[in-house]
């Protein structure tokens, strides 16, 4: 038994934040039904990095494992009837429609909770359900910029550098995942469903708990220097530095100790907690000059031996090959009916008694339409009629797919050949 076995999630979200949150629920055993348009969810048609895949691009593949697909036209009366039948037995409904769309479609909390008062209804938005920014585009880069986070790194006067990840989407997904678990715990205790609201602006703002508290409670403004410090609220040297053959990261060393290791005599008489702030740019610059003289491995050995916090700067291949990553089983591999052998990040948590698993890879558009509708009580004739009218659509699995009839539980680090789809 997995932690969320027996719970059904209706995932009506698109792009990254909502689907990623729903995938986490599926990893813990929830039956996640991805309710998508008859032509497929938007992310199916937007390939990050140009990684198109065969039948499913990598963007969609990475965010929709452990889900079944129901392709239905919610603008059609019969399509809405299909969804309402599913709502009757659902535990969680998750959507990230633009403000007002849920009401226009008739799938807002008031409507669905009247059908199922035990429903946990999660509404995700860019900036909030109302307020002056409610209609602004909830896009990751734009929210990174608005959050203030970009001005905590880099050089004064130069363009701020965004994170190299879809940071706001990812933290919003984790926030929604936490919120669903908390709301389900509340329901277990009280029997009551409820409306849960999560927005991207609040998620990225509250992620900066320490930084913003330094500003709001400590009164210390963000002030970037003339050198590319990795964080405005951490003393120098703090950041990445070029070596004779690559780069390394260096974090808050004791200045006299660092001076001895790199041969910088001006550091020997410095007070780390005073001069590290008042002479931040000069310290960064002198450190950068000294580190050019030796290779990364040479410096890592010398600095580590002196008790200084430092580390290599990996690319993705080096990360995948890292012995700790291999030991942790951070990545999992499995065979997908259309995409072949898939290697992807696994699960960020470990449970001794109820481990997360991969039961199926990302589905084709409407791959489970018949199956899901049958479970909801629709007859074969009703399904056939709705298919004929285009209210719902389906895509069949490739013929002769051996993996379709196989079954295995997947745990972190497992070889998942033969996972059931």
TrEMBL record:
Which portions of the sequence form the region Disordered?
395-421
Species name for this entry? Kribbella jejuensis
Keyword Ribosomal protein, does the record have it? no
Query: Sorted alphabetically, which SUPFAM superfamilies does this protein's record hold?
Result: CoA-transferase family III (CaiB/BaiF)
InterPro entries attached here?
CoA-transferase_III_domain (IPR050483), CoA-Trfase_fam_III (IPR003673), CoA-Trfase_III_dom3_sf (IPR044855), CoA-Trfase_III_dom_1_sf (IPR023606)
Q: What is this protein called?
A: Crotonobetainyl-CoA:carnitine CoA-transferase CaiB-like acyl-CoA transferase
Query: What's an example of a GO molecular-function annotation for this chain?
Result: CoA-transferase activity
The record's keywords, sorted A to Z, are: Transferase
**Entries under Pfam families matching the protein:** CoA_transf_3
């Amino acid at each position: 038994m997995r932690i969320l076995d027996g719970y059904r999630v209706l995932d009506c979200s698109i792009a990254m934040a909502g689907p990623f949150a729903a995938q986490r629920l599926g990893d813990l055993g929830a039956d996640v039904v991805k309710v998508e348009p008859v032509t497929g969810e938007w992310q199916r048609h937007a390939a990050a990095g140009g990684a198109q895949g065969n039948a499913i691009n990598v963007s969609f593949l990475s965010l929709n494992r452990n889900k079944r697909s129901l392709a239905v036209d919610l603008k059609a009366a019969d399509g809405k009837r299909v969804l309402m039948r599913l709502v009757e037995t659902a535990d969680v409904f998750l959507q990230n429609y633009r403000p007002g769309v849920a009401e226009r479609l008739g799938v807002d909390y008031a409507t669905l909770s009247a059908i199922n008062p035990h429903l946990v209804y999660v509404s995700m938005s860019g900036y909030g359900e109302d307020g002056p920014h409610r209609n602004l585009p909830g896009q990751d880069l734009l929210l990174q910029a608005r959050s203030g986070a970009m001005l905590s790194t880099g050089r004064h006067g130069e363009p701020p550098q965004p994170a190299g990840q879809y940071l706001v989407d990812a933290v919003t997904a984790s926030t929604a995942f936490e919120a669903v678990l908390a709301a389900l715990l509340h329901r277990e205790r009280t029997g009551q469903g409820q409306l849960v609201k999560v927005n991207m602006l609040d998620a990225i703002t509250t992620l900066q708990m320490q930084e913003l508290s330094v500003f709001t409670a400590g009164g210390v403004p963000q002030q970037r220097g003339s050198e590319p410090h990795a964080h405005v609220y951490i003393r120098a040297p703090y950041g990445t530095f070029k070596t004779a053959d690559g780069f390394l990261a260096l974090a808050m060393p004791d200045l006299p100790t660092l001076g001895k290791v790199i041969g910088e005599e001006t550091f020997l008489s410095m007070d780390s907690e005073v001069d590290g702030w008042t002479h931040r740019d000069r310290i960064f610059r002198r450190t950068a000059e000294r580190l050019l003289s030796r290779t990364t491995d040479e410096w890592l050995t010398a600095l580590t031996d002196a008790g200084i916090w430092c580390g290599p700067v990996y690319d993705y291949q080096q990360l995948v090959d890292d012995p700790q990553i291999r030991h942790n089983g951070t990545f999992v591999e499995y065979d997908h009916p259309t995409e072949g052998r898939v290697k992807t990040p696994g699960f960020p948590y470990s449970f001794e008694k109820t481990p997360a698993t991969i039961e199926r890879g990302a589905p084709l558009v409407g791959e489970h339409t018949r199956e899901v509708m049958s479970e909801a009580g629709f007859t074969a004739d009703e399904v056939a009629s709705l298919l004929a009218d285009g209210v719902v659509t389906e895509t069949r699995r490739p013929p002769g797919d051996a993996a379709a009839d196989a079954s295995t539980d997947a745990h972190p680090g497992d070889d998942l050949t033969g996972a059931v789809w």
